[in-house]
Amino acid sequence: MKPFAYHQPNQIPDAAKLLTSIEDSKLVAGGMTLIPTLKQRLASPVALVDLSKLGDLKGITDDGATITIGAMTPHVVVAASQLVQTKIPGLAALASMIGDPAVRSRGTIGGSVANNDPAADYPAGVLGLGATIVTSTREIAADSFFLGLFETALEPGEIITAIRFPVPLKAGYAKFKAPASRYALVGVFVAKVADGVRVAVTGAGPGVFRVPPMEAALSGNFDPTAIAAIKIDTDGLTSDIHAEADYRAHLVTVMAKRAVDAALS
Amino acid sequence: MGEVIGIGAAPKRKEDQRFLTGRGNYVSDIKRPGMTAGVFVRSPHGHAVLRGIDKSAALASSGVIAVLTGDDVKADGLGSLPCGWGITDAKGVPMKEPPFPMLAQDKVRFVGDMVAFVIAETPEQANAGAELLKVDYEVLPSVVGVLEAVRPGAPQLFDDVPNNICCDWELGDKAAVEAAFKKAAHVAKLSLVNNRLIGNPMEPRAAIAEYEPGTDRYTLWTTSQFPHVVRFLMGALVLNIPQHKLRVVAPDVGGGFGVKQFHYGEEAVITWAAKRVRRPVKWVASRSEGYVSDRHGRDHVTEAELALDENGKFLAFRVNTLANMGGYLSTFGPNIPTNLYGPLLGGVYTTPAIYCNVKVVFTNTVPVDAYRGAGRPEATFVLERMVDVAASEMGIDRVEIRRRNMIPKEAYPYQTPVLVQYDSGDPMGCLDGALVAADVKNFGVRKAASASKGKFRGLGYSTYVEACGLAPSRFAGRLGARGGLYESATVRVHPTGQVTVMIGTHNHGQGHETTFAQIVSEKLGVAFENVDIVFGDTDRVQFGMGTYGSRSLVVGGAALSKATDKVIVKGKKIAAHLLEAAEADIQFEAGKFSVAGTDRIKTFEEIAGAAYVPHNYPLEVLEPGLEEQAYYDPVNFTYPGGCHIAEVEVDPETGTVTLVNYTAVDDVGTVINPMIVEGQLHGGIVQGVGQALFENAVYDEGSGQLLSGSLMDYCMPRADHLPMMQVSTHSTLCTHTPMGVKGCGEVGTIGSPAAVINAVVDALSHLGVTHVDMPATPNRIWRLLQNASLPVAAE
Ligand SMILES: Cc1cc2nc3c(=O)[nH]c(=O)nc-3n(C[C@H](O)[C@H](O)[C@H](O)COP(=O)(O)OP(=O)(O)OC[C@H]3O[C@@H](n4cnc5c(N)ncnc54)[C@H](O)[C@@H]3O)c2cc1C
Fold first, then answer.
1. Which residues of chain B have pLDDT under 50?
2. A158 alpha carbon to ligand 1 midpoint, in Å?
3. Which of A239, B196, B236, B361 is deepest in the core (most CB within 10 A)?
4. What is the interface pTM, i.e. ipTM, of the complex?
């Protein structure tokens, strides 16, 4: 790890100001992704701006038709939340499948969404539910937030403050864990919302994506059998030492069926 | 007063007091006054010419004290890292043994090969300096697989090693095997890969070296399984340091599994550097650094053929293997796929003729050496897979074909056609026990239950034997060992009757401090708590070959037993004097010396006191003091073995294999501490399951990059991968070790991969699947099912 300055602001505007005024500065939330890259000297920001003292970034609120989760809320809190378990059980289940207990206690929803790891779980939930990313300056729809491998619509200095999830009619998540890392080799989030069905896939490609043919089929018949025969094109899917592209494509269908099963149960 | 806790008891482990309370003393815990930090600069290329190194920017970096390179090694006239075994080919031609410089000279041969050592005031400064080192590489194509490496036109690692073949080794009677194949009713064939593994001990490697100009003495603290061997190899053969001027300490070590039983270049560089900078130097490997520098294991490609008569009796076995050595010869490297492999191909069967050819091959990968089991898991895997393939082809039940070929209990000692002679064993007894323990008779019910959930269930057997307790020195010497393989122990009885044992083995998780104390407690009748075991310091322990090859109890324990017997012999002499009786009339039992047939006794403490306060003592014929030493060189290997039965469930939709039941019945000879034996079996089985289902070291052909270079990509087995295991022992006593022990450190790893893969193949056999390579990952199983000859549907 190379030396860096450390700031712990109390107000969101102060944090945003530090971030824009110090070149090569970085936000740190749970640090589960950032700290390992610092230790391996893959990143060497001159300053870290710690979000942990911004109290209004933590917690889960019930707004009736939506649930809002503060950016600094750790996965373990989402997984254990009565509110989330009742209103969006698929999202609570998703949070409970992230990493291991230590990672779930430190890692945050804001950090996960901002990082947009191609194998992370939350992006599937956020895109699958059609959530809204609330930032220090604006609100961004999930459909225009995730831009590709570790890339998002966030501008320099922009801080995610919360994620707002519409409460779906039904939703479920199924994850095939990568054997070593336990990130998603393929994870599929399926949600039945007021205006149709959304299917979001993580792990299979360079970024989270939706599957319109499955969405159409499930809108007609929200049952696993409706999508059993839908095959995903292998073009653009990831092939690595853990899984070849055609196997990932196959898993998308299997996990989508299981996600529908989970949503129905 | 504590009590005697002897052989067969299961006290909690003595060493856990400090481990569980955070009071262990590992190398990275040690701080020396004025200590500096060192960092190795390693090759990022699999294969490259080292054109030059510009140290200037690194040297100018803040806090940097020195930068050492291969040129400095050359200038100081230091040796190359020695190989402890010299094998020969069929014509007696010695293996090719190119030098293994401690810092690369002229060329680098694997990603991770060391090119420089940067020493600074702090680790951060050393890292910063290392990043500024300018190394000029001319990158060459890499070759990482053995099949590719021996092909014409392959990149050549060394100018004088044609086709990258270090040695073309063979064992057995080729002609007899050919003749047997000619008259065979059936020949079964099998091609397989034994996947490359990375050991991953919990504690990464680390070292600290210090030079004292006042005494011209060096001390090296290192994460080693064999400090005395490091002292010898490094002092005598690399750095030219006289043995009495070099102290090597291996304090608490957090797991070894073989990874720490080699003399590594890092140890030599750091010891040499400490004298150059006249300050202690410390290096602690990161996990990532371990992946590209800890010696790897396994990595074979094999073709095997079994000749059978019409009743399924094995007539002959022929095995051709290409074994990966990596970029250089490590300490035991060439010995593992040859001497520890070929002699095990007889297994528990009466196969009369066996021939084995092994081509030992250099590639642009981390050197390959012993990893838990070392050669024997590879042999067991080939043989036990082969037996299943033959059974299936001939339509004979897998258990039945094993029974037809097994060595009966009465036939021991049994001479195999591949050098080794098994002293004792009862493979049929282990098999029978395991069949019951695994509830094999109700397997059909469980299979049907799985099928009703759309899953395929399979059962796999491995009836195996291994050779451990390394090793009879004379025998090993004939096979190419360049050192002895005995062990030593000193039993020091204090004037107050407590005992300190100095032993040459090294405890790094095996529970020696407990097991060895039980032996002494039982034999001397001394309280268990009054026995301490000292190891891992060449200044405190007389000598030793260390811990590997399941040898600690078998060879070290034998030395300890002998030394303890000598204490009793001397104690009897003292007792005879004090009790005014003839020595022959003195009995020793339960800590008391007595005159046979009388109530006249002297306690062990009284005898110890008399030995150190020799006022009434036969000084004319007996030296004072009560301390005895013994060296023990085994007369044969020991041959533990047993029967493992794995039960798996395959999800055809995802290809996931779940291990649902695991049963092991093993013959490990006498059991000193059943809890520790059970723990060793559990751990060993898990490592074998890891190889079978999860672990795989993958290199990129061409670039030589390690693609599985972290725990995010290299899958270690975890608790939730495993069922509760049923392990038990069915022991026959070793006929040549003093206590009848056979060793248990590696059996689990040796028996399990074949059991698991045989179960996976069984689960898929109705689809025409006849073999699955390790690891049986979901992707691999799914691919097999895609290509399977029958439609995928649960029966
Ligand atoms: C061993 C291990 C296993 C894991 N397994 C999984 C898994 O199975 N599934 C999964 O989804 N994830 C997994 N993770 C990742 C983990 O879930 C964390 O969510 C993730 O590391 C990011 O969250 P964090 O709070 O730790 O962010 P940090 O590491 O602190 O930050 C990550 C990045 O996001 C930026 N950032 C953080 N917060 C904000 C914000 N509010 N606004 C804008 N930018 C921000 C930071 O600047 C940084 O660039 C794993 C991590 C580890 C270490």
1. 792-795
2. 16
3. B361
4. 0.96
Ligand 1 atom, smallest distance to A154 CA: 43
Which residues from chain A sit within 8 angstroms of residue B779, using beta carbons? 242-244, 247
| A59 assigned to some structural domain | no
Residue-wise pLDDT for B734-757, tens only, equals: 999 999 999 999 999 999 999 999
**pTM summary value:** 0.97
Structure tokens at A235: 């073009």
Cβ of residue A50 closer than 8 Å to a chain B Cβ:
no
Pick the residue of B127, B782, B786 with the most A CBs within 10 A to test the interface with A by mutation: B782
The domain ranges of chain B are 16-22+486-632, 31-140+202-255+260-291, 296-470+636-787
Q: Does B694 touch chain A (CB under 8 A)?
A: yes
Size of interface A-B (CB pairs under 8 A): 46
B496 CA to centre of own chain = 39
- Neighbour tally for B477: CB within 10 Å: 14
Q: Give the type of residue at B589.
A: E
pLDDT for residue B788: 83
Let me know if residue A66 belongs to a domain. no
A111 lines ligand 1 (CB under 6 A): yes
Ligand 1: distance of its center to the CA of A73 in Å? 12
Domain count, chain A: 2
B16-22+486-632 and B296-470+636-787 share one fold: yes
Task: Give the class (CATH, top level) of B31-140+202-255+260-291.
Answer: alpha beta
Q: Looking at ligand 1, which atom is closest to the CA of residue A161? A: 41
The one-letter amino acid code at B51 reads R
Query: For domain B296-470+636-787, which CATH number applies: 3.30.365.10, 3.40.640.10, 3.40.50.720, 3.10.310.10?
Result: 3.30.365.10
Domain boundary among A53, A72, A94: A53
Q: Residue A2 sits in which domain range?
A: 1-53
Question: What percent of chain B stands above pLDDT 90?
Answer: 98
Residue B534 has a pLDDT of 98
CB contact under 8 A, B777 and A251: no
Q: Among B406, B407, B385, B537, which residue's Cα sits nearest to residue B462?
A: B385
So what's the pLDDT on residue B787? 87
Question: Residue A253: its pLDDT value, please?
Answer: 98
Write the DSSP assignment of chain A as a string of letters. ----EEE--SSHHHHHHHHHHSTTEEEESS-TTHHHHHHTTS---SEEEE-TT-GGGS-EEE-SSEEEEETT-BHHHHHH-HHHHHH-HHHHHHHHTSS-HHHHHH-BHHHHHHHT-TT-SHHHHHHHTT-EEEESS-EEEGGGTEEETTEESPPTT--EEEEEEEPPSEEEEEEEE-TTT-SEEEEEEEEEETTEEEEEEESSSSS-EE-HHHHHHHHH--SGGGTTTPPPP-TT----SS--HHHHHHHHHHHHHHHHHHHH-
Residues of chain A below pLDDT 70? none
d(CA B515, CA B634) in angstroms, rounded, equals 20
Nearest-Cα distance to chain A for B452, in Å, is 18
Best residue in A250, A252, A257 for a mutation probing chain B (most B CBs within 10 Å): A250
The residue among A1, A175, A234, A241 with the most chain B CBs within 10 A of its CB, best to mutate, is A241
Q: Is A252 contained in some domain? A: yes
Residue A256 lies in a domain: yes
Q: What is the distance in angstroms between the Cα of A125 and the nearest Cα belonging to chain B?
A: 22
CATH label of the domain that carries residue A16: 3.30.43.10
- Looking at residue A235, which CATH number applies to its domain? 3.30.390.50
Residue A122 touches chain B, beta carbons under 8 Å: no
The pLDDT score that the predictor gives to residue B793 is 46
CB A253 less than 6 A from any atom of ligand 1 = no
* Nearest in space to B690 (alpha carbons), one of B660, B665, B721, B664: B721
